[in-house]
Amino acid sequence: MTRRLSTPPPEWSESPTFRFLHVSNFSPAKRLDLIIGAFYEVWQTHPDVSLTIAGDGDIAQLTELIASLAPEHPSSNGHQPEINVSGPHSLTEIADLMRAADAFLLTSDYETQSVVMLEAQLCGLKTIATQCGGPESIVTDSEQGELIDVDDYAALLNAMQKMVHDGRDNPVRRADLSTRAKKLYAASAIRQQLLLIYDQATRA
Fold first, then answer.
1. C-alpha separations of 77 from 69, 73, 74, 81, 175 in Å
2. CB atoms inside a 10 Å sphere around CB 197
3. I need a labelling partner for 36 at 20 to 30 A (CA). Which of 84, 138, 151, 201 fits?
4. Which domains does the chain have, with CATH numbers?
5. Residues contacting residue 195 through CB under 8 Å, at least 6 positions apart
């Protein structure tokens, strides 16, 4: 996704729903079983939550996984959990999904530098991610989100519950997070870093 598309939402939405988002190719290494299972458990006590899973993977297989993990009973108010599955998407559509979300989830078994996490931060999204390689250099403090161990379902559940309890970030906080990310990951920032490396190499 081009960095120019990745911006925080232009205005505040009054929706009471806390919206989680995951974007990937739906491969087993992304551990969607953890995300879906934890989401269902959060929903049991916080019914005003939703989960969107977007990407270019096998939607039929993902739908089967969602059904297999569904709770046997509805929440106390009788609502059913809201899980939206869609894709593939254009880069613009992914950026729109990120602007509409309140938190990004990435529970991979392994990652290099996760571009999708960078894009989420540029959109002002906090992230819950596993310590699996790349995420450790992207989520470095609580303002950016939370890191958990690989395959740690309890930690994922606790982190999601805490985000819902703390509530949705307002536009100012999202803009601040986006500004921090731009200083590190925007094209101009990357260009300056490369020029610095080149300059140091030529002086060596």
1. 20, 11, 8, 11, 35
2. 10
3. 138
4. 15-203 (3.40.50.2000)
5. none
In tens, the pLDDT along 107-138 reads 999 988 788 999 999 999 999 999 998 899 89
Cβ neighbourhood burial of 162 (10 Å; 0-12, 13-18, 19+): exposed
Closest by CA to 25, choosing from 62, 68, 50, is 62
Residue 103's nearest CA partner among 155, 168, 154, 11 is 168
State the Cα–Cα distance between residues 148 and 130, nearest whole angstrom.
Answer: 5
Q: Which amino acid is at 83?
A: I
Contact 110, 29 (CB under 8 A): yes
Q: Please say whether the beta carbons of 18 and 47 come within 8 A.
A: no
Place of tokens 């992304």: 30
Q: Percentage of the chain with pLDDT > 90?
A: 64
